[in-house]
Amino acid sequence: MAKAAQILAKIHNVTENFDVNINKKRNIFTEVERFLKIEKNIIQKIEQGEEFLKEVEHYTNWAKRNITNNVIIHNDYRPANVLFKGSEVEAVIDFD
Question: Each residue of 24-33: pLDDT tens digit?
Fold first, then answer.
């Protein structure tokens, strides 16, 4: 999977200077905010849930303030979305 991660990093780097003007309703921040809305459920089900949520909020706020570039991201990165030819990564698929 290290090779798949390298390919994903290349995609991010190549798209860093794209002039992306997409008015999608869903992005990494909306996903985190949706996650934070179920806060009570998280606190009850995850050990040290309250501390975890505070860290997620802290890093999300930092990212909103400091990340100014747009890149293409993969919202569903998992082994099923990586194609192999033998033991080599051939492609990463299923981008939103």
Answer: 666 677 777 8
